[in-house]
Structure prediction request, 237 residues.
Amino acid sequence: MVVVGAGTAGLEAACTAAEVGCHVTLLEKTDKIGGLSVEISKIPAKKRLADFPTYLKARAGQLENLTILTNTEGTLERVRQYHPHLVVNATGSVPILPPIDGLAQQLQSSAPVFSILDFIAEVERYPEDLSGKRVVVVGGGAVGLDVVEFFVSRNAQITLVEMLPTIGNGLDASSIASVQRIPAKGTSTTTDRHCFDQSTPGRLFGQPKWHGRNATLRLWICMSWHEGICSRFGRAF
Prediction:
């Protein structure tokens, strides 16, 4: 058996299969295992997320019939080398960029524009007190709300922009309760807004217009959009 992707789903699948007697090879293209749970746990309010991958690592370490290979991408050619009876694709999801003109260029420049992974990579460098700083978070789902919570705790002025009519669409009851408390914390929310232009450094333009005009926001921006990865192995074996 071959499992591709050593995030929490891949580790769980690999451990479970090995525990019932399968010989399992787990392939991970990065230099560490644990996946997005490990990355997201770097956000202070999410540090407990690291507990599950820590448990899975310890569990995997006790299984002699489970081999974990890091820095090893699960290409079709490589997977075929193991002649597996079963392949599990656990490659998860990756951040994508919404169709905002100029966004990709801004992310590669020195402008104060960050993807969610950029934000997490720098999370320990943000000052404890961000009073007077203005932050725009584009995307009002679970990830965007985590970013809002982080900056609110540091006294930043937040604007949360969401293209759907509601913030936190589809979240659980506990998360929805947190969303309802956002306005009381000095955070403004803007729904039914589609951002379409970020080509000018430090500025964001939206549609429909804010307050009857295009808004020019000289703010930090954190993007929080995700897309699932389709299986590459469905027809290969």
Observations:
- The chain has two domains: 2-91, 95-226.
